Amino acid sequence: MTHSSMSARTVDARRHSGRRAATIAAMTTGLWRAATRAVTLLALALTVATAPAARAPARWPPLVTPMPSPTGPNSSLPQLSTSARGTVLSWVERRGTRAVLRFAERRGAGWSSPRTVASGDDWFVNWADVPSVVLLDDGTMAAHWLQKNGDSRYAYDVRLSHSGDDGRTWTPSFTPHHDGTRTEHGFASLFQMPGLGLGLVWLDGRATSEPGAHDATHAPSGGAMTIRSSTYDRGWRQVSDEPVDLRVCDCCPTAAAVTSDGPIVAFRNRTEDEVRDIHVSRLEAGRWTTPVAVHDDGWKIAACPVNGPMLGARGRAVAVAWFTAVGDVGHAYVAFSGDAGRTFGAPVRLDDHASLGRVDVELLPDGSAVASWIELTESKATLMIRGVRADGTRLAAVPVAPLDGSRAAGVPRLALHGEQLTLAWTHHQDGVPMVRTATAVLAR
Q: Exposed, middle or buried: residue 391 (CB in 10 Å: 0-12, 13-18, 19+)?
C-alpha cells in the first residue's frame, strides 16, 4: 500500500513572501504599511488554519468498538487490504469439505454484502497461510488461494484470479510459478506494482529435497525453501518471475509494502547454522537488492516458528513488526526506517509480558505506527494494539479481544484507511470459528 505525505513548504513560501512584502511596505505610506501587515497576518493565519492536519499526532488511546461482521459461522483466516477506495476483508468459510473464499468491502460504518471469489474441495487450508483479496489502482480486484497439487501434505500451488466488475465474476485461476514441482508454494503477499499491475511474492519449494518437505536437511541432492517474486502488467501478461532470496524459513508468512522508492518485502531468513531473523529486500532498478537483517536478533531455532513479519509504508517511511524468541521467551517488536527500508533503527518492544507474535502494523501520517500482537500472560492470550512514535516512545497498550492462544486463533489483522482503523480476528464459540471485526478512529 502506498501513501502520499503532505508538505509544509507552503508555510515557508508564504513567510518568505511576507518578508518581501514588509520591505516594500516600509517605503510607502503608513496606511499602505498597515494594510500590507494586515494582509500578511491574515495569510499566515490562513496558512496555519489550513496546514495539513495529517501531520498532527493521532490521539491515543483510541476507543475500539465492535462492528457487525459480514461473515457467518465456520469462517476463519481473515485478511485485510486497503486501497484508495477503502478496506477489503476476505475470509474462508468451510462448508463440509468445501472451502469458500469470500470478501466484503467496508463502506461507512459497516460492510457490503459478501461476494464469493472461488471454492474447492482440493484446497490447502491452513491457519497461517492465508488467502487474500486486493483492489488494484485501476479498479481491478485480484485474489489468491492455495490448491493442492499432490498427495504430500505440503504440496500445493498459489492460484490467482482477477475481476473487472467489483468481484461479481472472476477469471479462471492460474499460477505465478511454472516449475511443475509437487512442493510447497504459498505464503503469498499481493501488492500494487508501481506503473504496472499485480505484484506478489511467495515461498517456493521447488528446490527442496522432498515434495512438501519442511526444514529438510538439504543434502546435496536437494535445496532450501526460497522466496520468489512475479509481476503482471495491466493486461495480465506476466512480465517477471525471479528469486528474491534462495534460503528462507519454510513456513513463515511474507509481507510486502510499497514505498515512494518502490516495493519492499520482508520475510524470515534462514542461515546455514539455523539463525532465523527477519530480513528485507527492495526492488531497485528492476532488481531485488541483497536481503539485509532488520535487526540482529540472533534467534537460533531448528524448526520453523510459523511467525512472519508485517510491513507498513508511507512515502519513504517504513515500519516493520516481527516476533522473536531468543532465550525461549517470545516478544514482539517494531522498528522504523526513514530511507525506504535501507536501514532501520533500534527495535521497540510491543508486549509488556510475553507474546505469541502474529503481528501486524500500519504507519500513520505523523510517522508513528500502530501495531497489533497477541499478548501472553500465564495462560491468557489477548489481542492488543499499541501506538509507537518514530522516536521509540511507546504509547499505552489497548486490549481488543481475548483469544484462544492455540493456532486455531489464526493471525489477527489490522488495516488503516484515512482515520479509520479496522481489526479482524477469529473468535471461537462452542468450538465454532467466526471472524469478528472492530473499528477505532485515530482522531487528531
A: exposed
